[in-house]
Amino acid sequence: MGSCSATTAQSDPWWKVDLGRNYKINAVIITGKDQHPLNGVEIWVDASKTPNVTSFRCGVIPVFGEPLSGYLSCNGAEGQFVRLLLPGANLKLELCEVQVYSTDFAYPQPNVAVKGRAVQSSTLYPAEAHRAIDGRRDTFYTEGSCSHTAPQSDPWWRVDLGQPFIVSNVKVTNRGDCCADRLDGAQIRIGNSLKNNGNDNPWCTNVTHIPLGNTFTFTCKSTGTTGRYVNLLLSGEMRILTLCEVEVYADPAVEALSNIANYKPALQSSTKKVWDVFSFLDAGAHKVVQTCRTHRFDKLCCSQTHTWRNPWWRVDLGAPYRVSAVVLHNRHDCCSSYIIGAQIRIGNSRTIGQNPVCSTITNADLKQTFYCSEMEGQYVSVNIKEITTLTFCRVEVYGSRVDRGPAVHLVGGRLCWSDALFYCRRHHWDLLSVQSHDEQTQVEQLIAKSVYPLSENVWLGLRRELMGMRWFWMSGEALTFNQWRLFPPLFPNPCGGVGRTDGLWSPLSCAEHNNFLCQSAPAQSSTKVYYYSSKMPRV
């Protein structure tokens, strides 16, 4: 209750956030409240405080599911203000959370806790552990969405995520009707051990205080915290642990992969040569992708540019890879702070600034690991957007080769069919087409392995002619294989998806909000079908 905002009942209520500067907005996620459904809410991106003709409407969320949360892609619309508008008379706009993601990020990480299994040290019936991962942020105990232990020494709560994940952050929602201080001092621990019920796993951070009914986000003190189990431990005698929601946002952990950057061709914007007694020491770009592991410049293991505007370094992996992680070794002899502010980018363009950002370096640690969520690209670069020197001593890149066929991406957001099409065409290549039994099997396996809850159907690039019965793929390939649940497909729904549980195809209303599948490349000799929508930019 205390973590939500609300307007009075009025005509066209609105809510707006000032981001502080212009951003290119990738996506907006909003969460509403049961009593005031947000059917018909519009999401706008404004360049100025006063909406005008340059304002961009990302779209409308017509129907909310359970929990009341909706996602809309904004396709890189640029602006400083994100505005939510609920058109109509005598309406009340109530919001419990708004999340805004810039284009430097892919689709926001999923909350993997909702598919986990929760246990706790004791239970004050009926407030069992699983209530804290039901996807609802209801904060009144009587609403049946909070866990509660009995009074005891050192109570704990744990969620098993099912497999190791690289945890970015943990969101904790406190009780809203009383007892806000009960969570004070709780430890968040993350790891792969069940020793002492998981309470001996590495410490992530502490919960200092969460006000009544609020949701706070906690980030681990060490980068790249990995584990299968997330614990909340409350040390002390006769303590009570009450949690109204625990959300864990994470990527699957990096498997054992080889360093694919070793001895690959590397370039940099310029090369510094330093005179050392009898000769020049070469600080070329190739130095940091060899086997040398020292952190000293005089051991001929480090690269260094001249002091110049926007210095950069780049390695060519020789082919597209799905990059799981980049490890960077900093200099130890001096100049370690030079790396702060550098961006690590991955993509298929030789132009540094055109590739997406994996991470920004924020400290001068000797060795840092950056997790890139299997970003695809042939080139990995490090660049700084200022006048400075770029220098470091080793770069390791871990990933797997992209198959010759198009990579398939299951997207965690739920969009209507046309918005899903635009999302895929912006971020990948197109909505997925399925051409054989083998590809159908791969789709079913990918859906079955999803780490987050999926809609009953998942969008494909299937579309029916508006004035006929012929179905076709938006990617331009011929419909030579089908897996229809009923054949011929029932009229009149013109958009197609695959069933989450049985893998069969069905014609669906294009307005449904479903997860969807994107493909990264076309088949040979295919030309994707042009599509135009009045509310979205042309693609």
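Second entry:
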Amino acid sequence: MRIYMDPIRIQNKPIYLEVHSIRFSSRLGSRMHAMRLLIVFALSSLLVAADGGAGVGFFPPTCERIECPEFDLIAEENGYEIRRYNSAEWMSTSPIEDISLVNATRTGFLQLFDYIQGKNEYGVTIEMTGPVITQVSPSDGPFCASSFVVSFYIPKKNQADPPPAEGLHPQKWGEKFVAVRQFGGFVSDATIGEQAAALFSSLKGSNWDSAVDLSSVYTVAQYNSPFEFTGRVNEVWLLLDIVASAM
């Protein structure tokens, strides 16, 4: 696995982080790499200022390097877009109860990272894909745990027979319509609720209003490695109750 990173600037001083090419010869090695990712993930969560690079109709550059699920762009509206995903298969965690989206995503990411590094019943490694998505079922109060399910998009070559793994289960999407709001920077617990609320608000009174799922469940999609400090693209997804014949 080869990761490249440009220098970052803190208080206008360039800081160079050296990231080596790593080949995993054991599960311990992959676990150590996962911990390195999480250390950077934890540090980067402090840098939550948006850096731009995201907007309606912006194609995540990550998807030019790794495989992402294919979709059709149905409409571009003010502050959001409507997509149709024709088919996608995901490997998902069991529900994770936590008060923090960031913590729950970190927990799920560790499970999924082990999975793609060979901790599955077939003992095979799987290519990294994007995005990693976290389905959020909000709690009833600010101090109550919400429920989170973290999922990894399974590459096409593995979708016919995805390797089983303890604590994970496959989810196959048929045709799904999704309202999407994009934003930059790092995802944080302090701002993700605002992003989701902004998407709900944008859809009110629109042609898509009646199709919005009223359960308040939404999904956060993250496309970038924690090592990428600029040009980050994140999305909030809302599933819409639409059938193709109605389009």
